[in-house]
Each structure stands twice: as structure tokens, then as C-alpha cells.
Amino acid sequence: MKYFKKLILAAFFTIGLVVSANAQKFAHIDTEKLLREMPETKALQTELEKLRKTHADDINGMVKKFEAKVKKYEAEGKSQTQEVNQKRAIEVQQDRKKIAEAEQIASQDMQKKYQEKTIPIIKKAEEAIKKVAAEKGFIYVFDASPGKGLLVYDKGEDIYNAVKAKLGF
């Protein structure tokens, strides 16, 4: 019986050591906030705003020319032949199509630029998160951004400031 008690006591002690040795550290970070505050993201937003304005100016110029042409054609419509008016109607339809295509190209250009510039920013943030996790011995780092599925994160450490410092901002 004494031997059995010692065996059970030794088993509990061993299990306690194994559990504490295998204790896993958890951390969390709001990646959306981190990405939003990175200087590269702010520079990208400025660049995209300039590109959007350039596209908008170009399209607005096309629209103004189109509207002027339509007014002119409407004013001259009664004094022109049916054949000329039909050609003008086709020309107006083609101009509408060009404007729609320009809007579509502008949208695609903005999306392409965003994706092209966002990927390196995300990779940089991920690398910094991995480095901080390794330095601090975290096995799991959860994304605490709203809507990412992490609901409770009271016990884990928030590594936002450490990652921010690692990125140098």
C-alpha cells in the first residue's frame, strides 16, 4: 500500500512536470489594425487616391465631351437628314461604350494596384508576427481582428505593440 501511494504520488508529480513543460503559450493580435497603421499601407492609400483622382478626371473629361456632343446633336437634329442623325446616334452609343469601358479599366487598374502593393505589406506583417512569436516563445498566435472568429482572448498576450516595434513604427 505504501509502495502504491508512492507510485501514485510519483505519477502525479511526473504528470505535473510534463504538463507544465508542455504548457503552450498563446498570443493574439489585431492584424487589421496592424495593417491599417503600417506606414506602407498609408503610403498605398495615398497612391491609390492619386490614381483614383487621375482616373476620375479622365472619365469626367470624357463625360463632359460626351454631354456637349449630345447637346449639339440634339440641337442640330431637326436640321439634319435622317441618315446623319442615325450616324450620330451610333457615334453617341460608341462614346457611351467608351466611357463604360474606361470606368471598367479604371476599376480594374485600381484593384490590380491594390493587390500588387498589398501582398508585400501583408508578408512583411506576417514575418514580423512570426519573429515576435518566436522571440517570445508563442506556439499559437490568433488573429483578434473583428469578425475573424476569435471571441475570447483574455488569457493570451496581445503582441500588437511588440510587432509594431519590430516593424519600426
Query: Main β-sheet: number of strands, strand sense, barrel status?
Result: 3 strands, parallel
Unreliable parts: 3-22
| Rg (CA only) | 32 Å
Fraction of residues in H or I helices: over 70%
Mean pLDDT across residues: 86
Shape: rod-shaped
- Which structural class do you get from the secondary structure elements? mainly alpha
How many strand units?
3
Give the strand order, joined by hyphens, for the main sheet: 2-1-3
Order of helices and strands: HEHHHEEH
Beta fraction? 5-15%
**Cα-to-Cα separation, first versus last residue:** 64 Å
In DSSP terms (H or I, runs of 4 or more residues), the helix count works out at 5
Task: Explain how this protein is built.
With 169 residues, the protein is mainly alpha-helical. 76% of the residues lie in helices and 6% in strands. It has helices at residues 2-21, 31-37, 39-76, 82-136, 160-167; strands at residues 26-29, 140-143, 157-158. A 3-stranded parallel beta sheet has the order 2-1-3, with no helix packed on it. The longest helix is centred in the middle third of the chain and has 55 residues, at 82-136. The radius of gyration is 32 Å and the shape is rod-shaped. The protein starts with a helix and ends with a helix. The relative contact order is 0.18. The model is unreliable at 3-22 (pLDDT under 50).
